[in-house]
Amino acid sequence: xxxxxxxxxxxxxxxxxxxxxxxxxxxxTAALKAALTGLLSGRCPDPVTIRLPKGxxxxxxxxxxxxxxxxxxxxxxxxxxxxxxxxxGALVKVTVRAGSAGQGxxxxxxxxxxxxxxxxxxxxxxxxxxxxxxxAMMQAVVEQVCHQQxxxxxxxxxxxxxxxxxxxxxxxxxxxxxxxxxxxLGTTGIVIxxxxxxxxxxxxxxxxxxxxxxxxxxxxSTGSTSExxxxxxxxxxxxxxxxxxxxxxxxxxxxxxxxxxxxxLAGGVGKFAKLAQGFMDLHAHRSQLDxxxxxxxxxxxxxxxxxLRAVAESQTAAQILGICRDYGENxxxxxxxxxxxxxxxQAQSVVGDAVRVEIHLFDRQGHALAQSFA
Length: 374
Known about the structure:
The chain is built from twelve helices and 18 strands. With 374 residues, it is of the alpha/beta class. It folds into two domains: 170 residues, CbiD-like; 176 residues, no CATH class. The strands form six sheets. A five-stranded mixed beta sheet has the order 4-5-6-10-7. Helix 5 packs parallel to helix 7 and helix 11 runs antiparallel to helix 12. The longest helix is centred in the last third of the chain and has 23 residues. It is elongated. It starts with 20 loop residues before the first strand and ends with a strand.
């Protein structure tokens, strides 16, 4: 039954400018420990304390506790702190029951937790989408509790997130072949606000799935418009598409160590102008377009003085492109081509010779502006 103090939340660390939170892996581990303890002793600890991979020992208040013959269910509200995480506020539940002798800990996907259906992920096909670090954390707490209780660690734990299937539609899980719900994630147990580690994790897993499927050409895009255009251009399967967003560095560095033969990068002028400048994070709050750099590029293209003066007073790549278009379509085309060429060279310098890189620039309506091929 629901606990009356279910809104109580653990505090990850001393207050900072942005409050940190807990991963789904940490929440599931704590729920598992509480449920297993309740099954073996008749009492679920509340709050329940777990040990994270780096040694922290947070305590979690239970939002749900249900004891019945042969099984116990405990739940914890996922608190993502100040991170814009789709799982913030979700209930992470674990139901524990006795297993067969010698089976060890068996983890099952319940309501709202996905199941892996494609090769290439660090989880076998057919298994619950619980990544390796949370699996190790959960195994450790089972061994700890069973050692204290003097029993074998043969139990089945079903992990559930009510409403998780709908939330998963807002993630990359369906594209990765993780069907039916969310993944239980985390490497440290702690969510650092705006680190976007889950997005980068999805990029890496997308590359893994593409490689496991034998694909030699993948396309990484900064948004849905450019993704749709690059997919149509090459008739690429969904498994070849990487939702890169602003994380050019996370994409390129992973491909450097896990290469495919051909990489198409698709996006707009503003994003790729920053890549051409050497930025690996293309978000507006974490990298800024250097107007002086754009001005120098326009000078290289022999733009006339009225254009140079207008560019010097601009604030965005879109404004600069508009100025060049007003002067003449040829100058705008040359500017886009120069940005594409330099962005390709910058990306190629990261991934190395094993990957052939091409850049495709599109406007907001999906019209091609420039391409740069190796």
